Amino acid sequence: MQSNISQNGRLRLLATSARSSQGASKRDESKHSASKRATWQIQKGALSSKFGSSGWTPRKRLSPDALEGIRVLHNQFPDKYTTPVLADQFEVSAEAIRRILKSKWRPSDEEATNRRQRWDKRGERIWHKMVALGVKPPKRWREMGVGRMS
User: Fold this and answer.
1) I need a labelling partner for 84 at 20 to 30 A (CA). Which of 45, 98, 101, 143 fits?
2) What is the spatial distance between Cα 115 and Cα 112, in angstroms, rounded to a whole number?
3) CB within 8 A of 116, min separation 6: which ones?
4) How far is Cα 37 from Cα 33, in angstroms, rounded to an integer?
5) Which long-range contacts (CB under 8 A, 24 or more apart) does 87-92 make?
6) Helix (H, G, I), strand (E, B) or coil at 61
7) What is the CA radius of gyration of the chain?
8) Dmax (CA) of the chain
9) Phi then psi for 141, rounded to 5 degrees?
């Protein structure tokens, strides 16, 4: 009886080790195939699975000044202005803050001027709509002529 139990134990042990070695080889294959892909491809796959077919579409747009302010605050006080704190302060997702801080792109002087003009036109359009709804625009927009009756 004892030898029968020990044989069954050995058989179970062999079966278990065979199963675990098959699983290990599958894990090794997946690691190997992942290492063949470039880092950007792995990141792109993770983001596409996270955001789906629509891609990255933030709900709130930040002005160029706000983007620069986020970078400056984080660079000057990294312990105080962490990603979650900045996300709460600017009312955007932590993913948006992460992308802003990660970005190394800076506009040239001409691009910065064009961006500023586009941002001002956007603000003017928005405040014209708000005035039509009965909201009084801020002083800056009133001085620019938004909200005046023609």
Assistant:
1) 45
2) 5
3) 64
4) 7
5) 90/62, 90/66, 91/60, 92/58, 92/59, 92/60, 92/62
6) coil
7) 29
8) 104
9) -75, -35
Q: Do the beta carbons of residue 101 and residue 83 sit within 8 Å? A: yes
**pLDDT value of position 69:** 93
Count of alpha carbons within 13 Å of 99, Cβ hemisphere only?
Answer: 11
Tell me the residue length of the chain.
150
Give me the tens of pLDDT residue by residue for the chain, a chain 150 residues long. 555 555 555 545 445 555 555 555 555 555 555 568 888 888 888 878 877 776 666 667 888 889 999 999 999 999 999 999 999 999 998 888 999 999 888 889 999 899 889 988 988 999 989 999 999 888 888 888 887 755
